[in-house]
Design a protein that fits this description.
Radius of gyration: 24 Å
Number of helices: 1
Distance between the termini: 55 Å
Largest sheet: 5 strands, mixed
Oligomer: single chain
Strand content: over 45%
């Protein structure tokens, strides 16, 4: 009887301690004096590291497959891409089949075609089967290719330098087969060759929606003193003819150029170039409007949703433009050097760089509804969200809509703002 009493007392103590720990670790919903949510309970959190967080890899754009996500993790000295179950945060598989043991797995751009994920890192090309986390193919190339790849159906497009038949050096587009990894020369631009020693480069090749044969080609050619002139051209891949080309995107400028591929929406072409956002007519190439800003959009780029173009500028403000007119609809102070934007149900999500918090902004009004601080989620002082991709998943079956963002230590899954 005495032993039974002791057991009951110990059980009660353990129960109280456990309850207190749960209360200590419980995140309280908090709102700042401006009415913005700065902390909110999460559905789950998963540790990203079993080792040194400083050796972590990076994924810039969200990779979502079968409602699960690819995120960067570490384990000891090993660096991985890990596939997370978004129901509970459990890791389903991990991949680190890289050529160099010390190689950082850096995925600034990728192409996803069904269950295959492809990315480029210098001379190294990789393709992963998302069903099982196994390497589908990998190649160490004879030359370096641009990591800024984009999709062209079952192919991916990248660029690299060649010496053409006239002896000129130029960057042209290469087409890679996602199923085999085989890569071939694909397309060059109508360069003027007015200045023989200048740099000439195809930058991006973007397919026109609903017409796989029409391609928007973005290319650039230098004038003396590194003054760069950037152009659009519309190319018919079937007839191998230019429908129009040499449409100047912006006035020539020193070290100017596009960092992201243009977006095509409602028969218009949109692009960011240096401190400007431009809109061109797809049919003619004619520039419809151009808006100038105090700084550039290199880190965040822009998204187009619901007739709005939303971008985060390095001047620490997010802006929203009407896609038809370019008129500014709203402007709100956020952060600079931020991660890419994701959109779900009227809300834009991203992680600030200079202000390392998880932002959520109403796309229609510019109202900031979240500015979540990782330090208030139980990590303590100095914790911060990092500018990896932010993943958004719509509601499905009995599961709520979700937002997944990464701090330096954890992946957090929140119920999306509503």
């Amino acid at each position: 009887m005495k032993m039974k009493k002791i057991f009951l007392v110990l059980s009660a103590i353990i129960s109280v301690v456990s309850c207190n720990l749960e209360k200590e670790n419980e995140v309280i919903h908090q709102i700042d004096d401006q009415g913005v949510v700065i902390a909110t309970p999460y559905i789950w959190k998963t540790s990203l590291h079993q080792g040194n967080p400083a050796s972590n890899s990076f994924v810039k754009f969200p990779v979502v497959y079968n409602d699960n996500v690819v995120i960067p993790t570490t384990n000891g000295d090993n660096i991985y891409l890990s596939f997370l179950n978004t129901l509970d945060g459990k890791i389903l598989w991990r991949w680190n089949d890289v050529f160099e043991e010390s190689e950082r797995i850096y995925v600034p751009w990728h192409v996803q075609y069904n269950n295959l994920l492809t990315f480029q890192s210098g001379v190294r090309s990789y393709c992963i089967n998302l069903d099982n986390g196994l390497t589908y193919w990998k190649f160490r190339r004879d030359q370096s290719f641009d990591s800024r790849i984009n999709s062209l159906g079952m192919y991916y497009i990248t660029t690299a330098s060649i010496t053409n038949s006239d002896g000129y050096n130029e960057f042209i587009a290469f087409k890679g087969d996602i199923h085999t990894g085989h890569i071939t020369e694909f397309l060059t631009a109508n360069f003027t060759y007015e200045h023989p020693d200048c740099v000439r480069a195809v930058c991006f090749v973007t397919s026109v929606p609903n017409n796989k044969n029409l391609l928007i080609v973005t290319y650039a050619e230098n004038l003396p003193d590194w003054i760069t002139q950037s152009y659009f051209g519309l190319y018919n891949a079937e007839s191998k003819e230019w429908i129009w080309d040499k449409i100047l995107i912006a006035p020539p400028k020193r070290y100017s150029g596009l960092y992201y591929a243009p977006k095509i929406h409602d028969n218009k072409i949109y692009a960011e170039i240096e401190n400007s956002i431009v809109c061109h007519d797809l049919t003619t190439g004619k520039q419809l409007w151009k808006r100038d800003f105090t700084n550039d959009f290199t880190f965040t780029g822009f998204i187009i949703e619901d007739g709005r173009l939303i971008a985060n500028n390095e001047d620490l403000f997010a802006v929203c433009l009407d896609t038809e007119t370019g008129n500014e609809l709203w402007r709100v102070r956020t952060a600079g050097t931020s991660g890419k934007m994701s959109y779900l149900n009227g809300i834009v999500y991203f992680v600030g760089g200079s202000v390392p918090r998880l932002f959520a902004i109403e796309a229609s009004t510019g109202k900031i509804v979240w500015r979540i601080d990782a330090a208030l989620l139980g990590e303590g002082y100095g914790a911060r969200f990092i500018t990896n991709a932010v993943y958004v998943l719509p509601a499905k079956d009995s599961q709520p809509a979700k937002v997944i963002a990464l701090s330096g230590l954890y992946a957090y899954c929140f119920e999306a703002y509503r």
